[in-house]
Structure formats: C-alpha cells, structure tokens
Design goal:
Helices cover about 0% and strands about 40% of the residues. The chain is mostly beta strands and about 100 residues long. The chain has a single domain (about 20-100), classed as Jelly Rolls, CATH 2.60.120. The protein is globular, with a radius of gyration of 14 Å. It starts with 18 loop residues before the first strand and ends with a strand.
C-alpha cells in the first residue's frame, strides 16, 4: 500500500484537454450511449451489485470483457460509443469517463 492512497484507488496520468462523463443503467439488453466526440482513453467503473460486460463501438454480449462489481478498468483505445450488458436478470450502474 502506498502512503496516502488506498490500494483500490485509480490513478491516471494524461495529457488530456477534455473529459466527458456518461452514466449507464445497464440491464440484460445491450445498453449504450455516445460521447459527443471520439475519446482516446476510457475509464469504466461498475458501481452495481453484479458484473457487467463491456465492448467498444459494437454491441455488447456476455462473451465480452467482464467488469466485476465495484471494480474499474481503463483502456487507451479510440471510442465513440461504449456498450455494456449484464447477465440475464441482473443490472448495474456503470460510470464511464472519456478523455481526449
């Protein structure tokens, strides 16, 4: 553990000039929302009680990257429309921060 930082904190370094936030109420159907412009990096945080599955600029399925409950994931891939889905009968709130 680093002094003054809990182990679960997310730290990022970026030369970004713009940030845009999205909030998705993810269900067992593909859920998506578009940024106003293409983002260069994306940070996902799953604030729900269930895992969700995320995809970039394409429909999400439960075969995509699994983001467990109460966890974060960042990627440096251009993206305009993040997609997410939960397993049947589950839901979560997904916070997404885009950086350009």
């Amino acid at each position: 553990m680093c002094a003054d930082f809990p182990d679960d904190s997310v730290r990022t370094i970026s030369s970004a000039t713009e940030i845009e936030d999205l909030k998705l109420s993810v269900t067992d159907s593909d859920t998506s929302e578009s940024f106003s412009k293409e983002m260069k990096s994306i940070l996902f945080y799953n604030d729900g009680d269930y895992a969700c599955y995320i995809n970039i600029d394409s429909t999400a399925t439960t075969n995509n990257f699994k983001l467990p409950s109460k966890s974060a994931h960042s990627i440096d891939i251009p993206c305009t429309t993040p997609h997410a889905i939960c397993a049947s009968g589950e839901s979560c709130t997904l916070y997404i921060r885009g950086i350009r």
